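Cast an eye over this sequence plus tokens and explain the fold to me:
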Amino acid sequence: MDSYVSDFINYLAVERGLAQNTLESYGRDLKQFKEYLNCRKKDIIHDSNKDIIMDYLETLQEKGRAVSTISRNLAAIKSFYQYLVRERFLEKDPAIHLESPKLEKKLPRILSISEVEQLLKQPNLQFPNGIRDKAMLELLYATGIRVTELISLNISDVNLEMGYIKCYGKGSKERIVPLGSIAAKCVQEYISKGRNKLVRTYEEPALFVNHHGNRLTRQGFWKIIKKYAHEASIVKEITPHTLRHSFATHLLENGADLRSVQEMLGHADISTTQIYTHITRNHLKEVYNKTHPRA
């Protein structure tokens, strides 16, 4: 099965151009499925059937895996079997009639504008890493880009004079996102006063680097934002996407149209962006209940 999975991941990378994070996720999910089949002494080609896949998904459920995790595993398995049939390694697709479990749509947690301001005040600008952190947080809130897109930025992707950044989203799709004046000023400050003290070589293309002078990782950023959330006394649970969610919600609350927000977030489908309208409706209801004399 290893060779089939390897060929499949290569197909996703080369022919479908999926992002590295997606490829790694598919690889992990299929590895777990392979281990399950090995334990049951089943062969991927000769023993594949709907019941085995269902048993595997039920095993994940018994282990307490989230619905989103089970749904993602099934998506990986279905895509894998579709590939095997297309390449004629299998005659029939055993997963063709399986449906993903219904996901509960959870509203993303967001910060209020005052909480965002408190968070953005935390970095110590007396140190290079503080200047870097300030630039990263301001850039995230100003653009709503994903954390993966943030750490993937190169210096050449930033045009401070014109006020925009170029980033690559899911499926390596390029998009141009406008950059506010405050964020642009912080990024300029970082490039001129912070980054040159962190990099070890002028050949490093990454915009944001760690104390070793290498490109900052997602895990590295995760630690940074949790640290500042704690220092800002923010009790809400913070995730790497918290500023992205806050960016979208605050735009809509202040009158931005949904299509523009969709474009800036890089959502392929506007239905993904519409989840933020639920948040803004809840906000409007709260305002109404607090301010209307007959609410």
